[in-house]
Write a sequence for this structure.
């Protein structure tokens, strides 16, 4: 690569900035603002899932996307390949 | 009906004071009765940007504490007679601003003016909270840069939960003003672009103010940029933003890169 190309082909970084912000703010919106409610919701969701499925807390992601007309609550749970159900019939 | 507007951001130095002066002047230039109020106690600068620093006698704290009448503290602009300034004090004592006192002053201002524009201090402490508390409308000033966007997101959360409107269960109107926008750097992917910021913050766009030397020159001579260089790109963007605030429906134009010497020399490949 010529020196000139090195100079002009710096990798655009705005995309990285956008992604980092989206992830960070999704968490901060839950942790702050009118979100005491959301923090509680996250905790209770984890507890309810943990009642039935053995999960790692770190593998549960609750994310709120705020939109102009509609907001979405996304709950993402990574399950182990063999799913150990905990006495769901009890 | 008077409208109280707060110009806020969380992060410091993004252009709140510049935008307060420019939007206030633009609305007044269009005939509205406007007062710009400096809430940055201890670090007042709106007087300087407006070119009224030598005319300050009384300030917001004097009025809040009852040491001066509102009419004594208001400074009428020498160039636009429908524009006034209520300066902040330089005292260190931020606690001098009480919520009750501020409420009383804002009520009085509502009676006299069409627009009450409050220039918020940076941060999320008491001063910023007082500045936003009575607002009907908020202008969230944001630079296309990660820390500014993050702080704006935080401020939006506070507008939605801590203002008088929010406490009454009403919605506060929020607008995004993207400032210090560098079209070239956005086009090259070096800076968040308009869509990125809008997607992340998801509040309606009031305008895009390009990075411009005219802004600095205007502040050097103590004049809102809409008065100092009314035909320049920054001033035109502020004029359009002011008309949108007043309810007009004007399309937002994303500033484009002006071709400089280098890019003409190398053609498209530079971009
Ligand atoms: N569009 C612009 N182009 C170039 N410079 C700008 C622009 N907008 C603001 N500035 C400059 O940025 C600096 C900070 O602006 P300003 O004082 O308005 O920010 P602020 O948000 O009020 O800061 P603070 O948080 O300290 O009150 C000033 O030097 C100003 O001239
Ligand atoms: Mg300021």
């Amino acid at each position: 690569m010529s020196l000139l190309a090195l100079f002009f082909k710096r990798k655009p970084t705005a995309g990285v900035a956008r992604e980092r912000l989206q992830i960070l703010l999704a968490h901060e919106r839950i942790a702050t603002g009118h979100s005491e409610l959301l923090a509680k919701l996250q905790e209770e969701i984890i507890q309810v899932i943990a009642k039935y499925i053995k999960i790692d807390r770190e593998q549960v992601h609750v994310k709120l996307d705020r939109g102009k007309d509609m907001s979405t609550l996304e709950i993402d749970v990574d399950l182990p390949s063999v799913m150990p159900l905990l006495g769901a019939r009890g | 009906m008077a409208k109280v507007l707060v110009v806020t951001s969380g992060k410091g130095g993004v252009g709140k004071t510049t935008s307060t002066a420019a939007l206030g002047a633009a609305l007044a230039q269009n005939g509205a009765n406007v007062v710009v109020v400096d809430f940055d106690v201890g670090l007042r600068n709106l007087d300087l940007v407006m070119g009224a620093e030598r005319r300050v006698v009384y300030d917001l704290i004097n009025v809040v504490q009852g040491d001066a009448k509102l009419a004594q503290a208001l400074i009428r602009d020498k160039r636009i007679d429908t524009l006034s300034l209520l300066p902040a004090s330089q005292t260190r004592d931020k606690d001098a601003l009480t919520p009750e006192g501020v409420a009383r002053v804002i009520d009085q201002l509502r009676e006299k003016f069409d627009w009450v524009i409050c220039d918020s201090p940076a941060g999320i402490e008491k001063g910023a909270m007082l500045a936003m508390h009575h607002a009907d409308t908020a202008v969230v000033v944001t630079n296309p840069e990660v820390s500014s966007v993050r702080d704006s997101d935080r401020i939006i959360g506070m507008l939605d939960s801590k203002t008088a409107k929010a406490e009454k269960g009403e919605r506060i109107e929020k607008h995004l003003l993207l400032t210090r926008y560098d079209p070239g750097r956005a086009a090259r992917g070096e800076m968040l672009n308009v869509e990125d910021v809008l997607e992340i913050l998801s509040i309606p766009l009031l305008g895009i103010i390009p990075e411009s030397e005219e802004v600095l020159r205007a502040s050097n001579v103590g004049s809102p940029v809409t008065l100092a260089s009314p035909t320049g790109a920054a001033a035109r963007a502020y004029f359009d933003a002011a008309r949108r605030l007043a309810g007009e429906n004007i399309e937002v134009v994303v500033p484009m890169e002006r071709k400089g010497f280098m890019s003409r020399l190398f053609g498209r490949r530079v971009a």
Notes: The longest strand of chain A covers residues 60-65.
